[in-house]
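Hi,

I'm pasting everything inline rather than attaching a file, because the server keeps stripping attachments. The sequence lines come first, and each chain or strand is labelled.
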Amino acid sequence: MATNNNQSVDMAPAPEGIEGSGFFLTSLEKAVGLARKNSLWPLPFATSCCGIEFMATMGSHYDFARFGSERPSFSPRQADLLMVMGTISKKLGPVLKQVYEQMAEPRWVLSVGACASSGGIFDTYSVLQGIDRIIPVDIYVPGCPPRPEQIIDGLMQIQTLAETEKIGYRNSPEYKARLAKYGIE
Amino acid sequence: MMVKLLDTLQLPIVSRRSTFGMDEVLIAVEDWIKTFQVLHANGYSLLTDLCGAHFPESDAQYHVIAHVHNLQINHRIRLKTVARDNSNPQVPSLTGLYSGANWMERETFDFYGIQFIGHPNLTRILNSDDMTAYPMRKDFPLEDDTRDDKKDEAFGR
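And the predicted assembly:
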C-alpha cells in the first residue's frame, strides 16, 4: 500500500439523487448534510487524561483528520463541535458554558470519558457531576479514558447526526426548548 | 547541632519535639509573628509551606502549620500554632515577612476558614468564589450533594 503512489482516494459518497449528463439533483437537506458531516471543525476542550487520548486520536496513527476534522478550532466562533475531554470542576463550569454559548449554530457537543459524562470517579464537592448539567450533550463516549477508536466512534455518530439533521431544526421550538432547559437564550 | 541552633534562637516555644528528622515547635498564636521575625532575621528566609489542619476532637480545632528553610545551613523547622476561637479562628498573617505566604494563607482560608489578620487580600483562591463552605473541615461532606442517582443500599449503608 505504501509503495503505490496511485492509490484511489475515497470520496464521501454522493447522496441519493437524480443524475444526468452535466447535472446532479438532490435535496438541499442532503447536500447540506453531506457538507456538514465531512467538515466538522472540533474545538478540543481537553482538561485531563481523555485529552491525552485525543492527542493520540489526532496523531498520524489514528488520524482524526480523515473525517474532515482537519482543523481543530481553538476559537469557539469557528467551531462546529465541542469536544469535552476530562474532568470539569464546578469552577470551570461557567467557562465551559460560555465557550458553548459563543459557538455558532449548528453546534454539537461530544462528551468524552466518564468524568465529562458523569463526574466519573470524582464524586466530590468540587467536580461537576457531568457536563450535561450545564450544556446539552449530543453523544457520550464511555471509558476512563476511552481508546482513540471509541473517540472516533463518537465523532462518527456526531457525523451521522450532522448528516441527518433536518433543515430548520436549529430554529425549531423543539431545539429552542432543549436550550431553554439549560437557560441558554 | 539542630538542638543548639533552636536554643540559640530563643524562640517563644510552648513545646517542641522532633518527628521525621525535623524539629517541630508549637508557638502560641500571640507569638506567631514575633517567632518568624526572629527566624527571618536568622537566615530562615524561605517559607516552604503553610497550611491548615482541623482536629474536631480537640478543644482548639484549627491549627496552622508552617515550614521554614534556612538555605545557608540547609536546616528546616516546622512550626505550629493553634487558633483560639473555634467559631472564628484567627491567626496573624505572615505576608509582611514572607511574600510567599500570600497565596498559601489564601488557600488555608479557602479550605479551613482560618482568618489571617493583616492579609492584604484574603479571598478564595482555588474554590469557586460563590462557595460558602470550608470544604477541608471534617464536618463538610465530601461527596457531591447534588446527585440523586445514588441509592444508599447500593453502597452498603
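Chain B has a mean pLDDT of 89.

If the labels don't parse on your end, tell me and I'll reformat.
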